[in-house]
Amino acid sequence: MPRKNRPHILIVDDKPDEARARKTEIGDRARVEIAHPQDLTDKSQINKADLILVDYRLEDWQERDSTRALCLKPTNGLALASILRAHADDKENSSPTAIAILTAHLKELSGGLPPEPRAHAIARAHNLEWAFSKANSQRETLLAQQVLSLASAVRKLPLSWPIDNPKKSEEQVQELLLVPKNAVWFARAWEEIQDCYPPLHELSEWSHGLAILRWLLHRILPYPCFLWDSFQLAARLRVTHDSLEQVMIKDSKLSRLFKDVRYQGILSDFLGTRWWRAGVESILWQVTEGESFDPQETFAVIKNYAPKLKALNLTQPVICLDSDYQPVNKFVDISEAVRVQPDGWPPYADQAWTTIEMARQERRLKALVLRQDLSKL
Amino acid sequence: MPPLHFSFQEFDEEIDAIYKIARSFISLGSFYVLPQLRERLAQIRTAKQGQPFGWGIPEGQPLITRTSNGDYQPDSKGEHFIYASISCAWEIEPLGYHNLASRQTRKFALRGKASTRVRLFEGDAPESIRELAMWRMEVGDDKSPGCHFHVQVLGESNEPPYPHSLPIPRFPSLLMTPMSVIEFVLAELFQDEWKMHAARSTPEIQRWQPIQRKWIGGLLRWQHDKIMNLSGSPWTSLKGAKPDSDLFLDTSPYAITKPS
After folding, report:
1. B39 to chain A: which residues are within 8 Å by CB?
2. Whether the predicted pLDDT of A1 surpasses 50
3. Domain-by-domain residue ranges, chain B?
4. Does the distance separating the beta carbons of A373 and B29 come in below 8 Å?
5. Hey, which bits of chain A come out as E strands?
6. Are residues A193 and A61 in the same domain?
7. Contact by Cβ (8 Å): A97, A154
8. Domain match, A181 and A86 both
């Protein structure tokens, strides 16, 4: 990465020494500055940052503790993040700055529910771009990759948005998402993006870039919409998720078939691989010569690209969520599933499902089952 | 007679709207039928002109409604517990350029068959399922003796009534797209409930309404014109009338785009 394009990350932590491991993991892929909250005295520290990572628990902060004015005492990282947000939004700031919380105590913010699957919801509820969980040593690399991905995405945001020119505004979004303009499925992909209400029209110039980022982070990547993850791809191909993952992880004939429809835009490495739904459908249509809705025909053709794929012997496979809202690795037939409406599930996302069995067993899931499907329980 | 032309965009909107309007009347097992129908149309929309495609809901994977517990009669007084199975087969050819600029206005031509089959069944266990009725709503071609938009009953087996060898009568119809037929069937199966459901002003109904007004209104205006400008018997004139290819497009002299 050219030096000038390297993102700038500011880590605000009451224990700066603990943050150094993170800086080491990121290496020279970004400029990383670590500061104790008390040492943030120069506004340019905030302004030049693409991403500010704020520690949630702020215990070692003597100056704060000794003051009596409550309004000068941010009790935790969320309060501090709000103050930093106000500074970052200041008109003197010539570029957008994302703010994320970093904590080993994400569960405190998730209402007792498993926090990692809800990082996007926690962030959305607290006016943050993301909520990172401090990782154990095995996951430190993944955390560093996500932090870098987010900071790099902010770096790529244009400095100005032609808010009075909707056409240009749309083009900027297309460039950020790298929608392949020459692909035969471009128009379809763009229509599907528009169906997910990207914040194109009514936001101010400053919030604009971050609004797009938040839309992707909070409302698109965690849900099945115009981008598909490996679960949706496997269900569409009617193969088991495990067998697809094993094939796609390698440079295989099948991974090459779908290479051009892999999402490459901003944040493409944030939550794992995604594929353009419109692109996948277009490829299936081509390779099956218009028979892409015949499950047997589709599998027969796809099997030529990856003989090790295992077929799903289900009439209509659906992806089911468990009580943590995580997709269950094993698909079930639609006849064994019921529709659920988890809180915050976008209306434009594909229908969420769970198994009848899980809905019967888990009270939390049962509460989410659509009224029309309750009779199946 | 040139083939009828339709707008891809209007069909796309029509499928999406009926999918959302009719969701609670469709069996869960058929949840993906309409999205797949829409996706198939989207793929044909990106294809080059010159090649006809089969488009529809396969007979083997039909759209199944939920069961009507006698709701086909007012006050749910019907004696059967029935559900409908709907499939359709159209042969269409995309017209014009398939580039981005022409996408919104792209049309397709009806190149052959345009038939939507409705079957009514009773019973839920496989051994007790009984077919109670079957009819097809079809669009004729230049050789068909009329009516151009018609309904045929049974006619698929060699046994009477309505054996295959007897392709009459062709009852006149006002509905021709598979999506219009879905509404027709739901309105029959769930008399009171559908009436209330379709009378609401939801975003989906607001999208559905102008398209249906255009299809039905255009057809009625055209029929009106045929019986007003004729010599001879009005019915016979109407029976033999063949529409121009743009009957359902905005360019048609019979087009209704806004309520009067």
Report:
1. 281, 293
2. no
3. 7-198
4. no
5. 8-12, 31-35, 51-55, 98-103, 130-133, 227-228, 275-276, 317-318, 332-333, 337-340, 352-355
6. no
7. yes
8. no
Quote the CA–CA distance of A114 and A107 in Å, as a whole number: 7
List, for residues A174-229, the tens digit of each pLDDT value.
Answer: 999 999 999 989 989 999 999 999 988 766 565 668 999 999 999 999 999 999 99
Q: ipTM value of the model? A: 0.77
Question: Does any CB of chain A come closer than 8 Å to the CB of residue B40?
Answer: yes
* Phi-psi sector, B16: left (phi>0), alpha (psi -120 to 50), beta: alpha
State how far the Cα of B71 lies from the Cα of B77, in Å rounded to an integer.
7
pTM: 0.86
A373 contacts on B by Cβ (under 8 Å): 28
A262 contact partners, CB below 8 Å, separation of at least 6:
A268, A273, A274, A275, A276
Is A335 in contact with B32 (Cβ distance < 8 A)? no
Report yes or no on A90 lying in a domain: yes
Domain that holds residue A18: 3-156
- The answer to whether residues A206 and A98 touch, using CB atoms and an 8 Å cutoff, is no
Q: Is B58 on the interface with A (CB under 8 A)?
A: yes
Whether A197 and chain B come into contact, CB under 8 Å, resolves to no
Q: Does B100 touch chain A (CB under 8 A)?
A: yes
Last residue of a domain, one of A220, A236, A262: A220
Residues of B in contact with A293 (CB under 8 A): 36, 39-40, 58
Q: How far apart are CA A198 and CA A176, in angstroms?
A: 12
- A180 contact residues in B (CB cutoff 8 A): none
Substitution target in B34, B39, B51, B103 with the highest count of A β-carbons within 10 Å is: B39
Confirm whether A265 is domain-assigned. no
Within a domain: residue A260?
A: no
Assess B54–A contact: CB distance below 8 Å, yes or no.
yes
- Number of domains chain A contains: 3
Last residue within a domain, chosen from A138, A156, A174: A156
| Residues listed for chain A | 377
What CATH number does residue A129 fall under?
Answer: 3.40.50.2300
The answer for A 303-332 residues in CB contact with B (under 8 A) is 315-316
Whole-angstrom distance, CA of residue A59 vs CA of residue A36 = 11
Q: For A242-278, how does the pLDDT look when each residue is reduced to its tens digit (9 = 90+)?
A: 999 999 988 899 999 999 999 999 999 999 999 999 9
